[in-house]
Amino acid sequence: MFKAQVQNTAQHNTKMKILLLCFSALVLSACDSKKEKTEPDTTQAKLQEKAEVLPYLNMQEAKAVYALPFCEKKNCIEVNIQTIKTQDSWLNQWIANNQSTVIQNQIGSKQSMTLQQAINAYVKKSDVWQQEFNKNKAYELHMTTRIASQRNQFVLLQLSVDTKQEDISVKERQYFFVADRKLKKNLSVLDVIQANKQNKMNELVQEKYQEWLNQQDKVVKKAAPKKLYWGQADWFFDGEGIGLHYRASEIVADGKQLDIYFSKEHTQNILKPEVFHKMF
Which pLDDT tens digit goes with each residue over 247-274? Predict the structure, then answer.
């Protein structure tokens, strides 16, 4: 009887071991299954993150492609545009569009034109000036182009212009434009400011504007607007924060250049968080 009891106990223990081994196998199988499900998700997330990182721009200086009319006169128009070519076709077109805008700005035009069309309009304006008096000299325009800063998908374009028009020479007139390469979009400062922080932005701008206004002479101060509109102003970003740029005589005739810089603290406070973290 004792032997039968021992045999029964041994059989029971063997069954328990088999059950434990089966349970362990099921647990390991479940873990492996869970791991198989997790790994593809992690890999996919890494691939998506990598896809969102745009390649750094490979830039090459080049002469812009445009044509000038054949000139047989001694006094011919001068247009020299140095540009930048990159591997991003959308950005190349964006640069050309902004060059067109800047050329039109020199003759008081605001139309949707290609670079060639803008140059044609500039040439026509010069011809009209020359026809008024035979000693009037043709216009001159020299433009340089550079990418002043890159932060992830954000690109800062700086165009510098020297002109000589109707016996008035202007040197190093600066223009700034910001693009989002990922969205393929030109960005105004309003595009990156939090909607609920526009009033705060306005307070900071008007404070700096009043300081600038107090430094102008009486004639300029009297003609200048009481408040400065900044929604469509040229803006830029650097290592510290964002800023606004107003060229000489842009705010008011004979007014000096105005640059408004925002500290990193103010920039973080007013910028959209998703923009700030990728721009700084």
Answer: 999 999 999 999 999 999 999 999 999 9
For residue 257 the two structure tokens come to 């250049």
What is the pTM assigned to this prediction? 0.81
| Coil vs helix vs strand at 123 | helix
Short-list 125, 129, 63, CA closest to 96: 63
Q: Is the dihedral of CA 194, 183, 100, 237 positive or negative?
A: positive
- C-beta of residue 161 within 8 angstroms of C-beta of residue 141: yes
Give the separation between CA 41 and CA 47, rounded to whole angstroms: 10
- Please state the rounded mean pLDDT for residues 182-203: 98
Query: Maximum CA pair distance of the chain?
Result: 135
Q: What are phi and psi of 79, to 5 degrees?
A: -135, 120
Query: Could you read off the pLDDT of 20-46 as tens digits, one per residue?
Result: 444 454 444 444 544 444 444 555 544
Query: Can you tell me the distance from the alpha carbon of 68 to that of 58, in angstroms, rounded to the nearest whole number?
Result: 29
Kindly tell me the sign of the dihedral angle through the C-alpha atoms of 82, 87, 91, 93: positive
Instruction: Say how far apart CA 238 and CA 254 lie, in whole Å.
Output: 28
Contacts of residue 114, defined as CB under 8 A and 6 or more positions apart, other chains included, come to: 96, 100
Q: Which of 241, 227, 243 is nearest to 189 (CA)?
A: 243
